[in-house]
Write a structure and sequence with these properties.
- The chain is an alpha+beta fold.
- It has a domain at 39-86.
- It has helices at residues 42-49, 53-61, 78-86, and strands spanning 10-19, 22-31, 39-40, 68-70, 73-77.
- Strands 3-5-4 form a 3-stranded antiparallel beta sheet. A two-stranded antiparallel ribbon has the order 1-2.
- Helix 1 packs across helix 2.
Length: 92
Amino acid sequence: MNTEGAVSTSVATESDLTVGGETRKAIREKPAFPVQKRAYTIPEAAFSAGCSTAHLYRQIRLGKLVLRKAGRRSLILAKDLQAFLEQLDVRP
């Protein structure tokens, strides 16, 4: 496979890791560019929207915000959160 001219999309970072009393260097791959989340947990969505989790749960109960389940996890898609925020009233 020819990788000449290929651009790396990740950056390796080093951190210390202690295993059995022995310190080792752990290398983790991080994306070289910011990754935008596609779904948020309720606390993450509340933080992102600048409101409380109680407010989001109220909006979900009223049917104004869509909640999705992945097993036991409750998720709000980024596009649903954006649509919810855009439909809010604009006050002068």
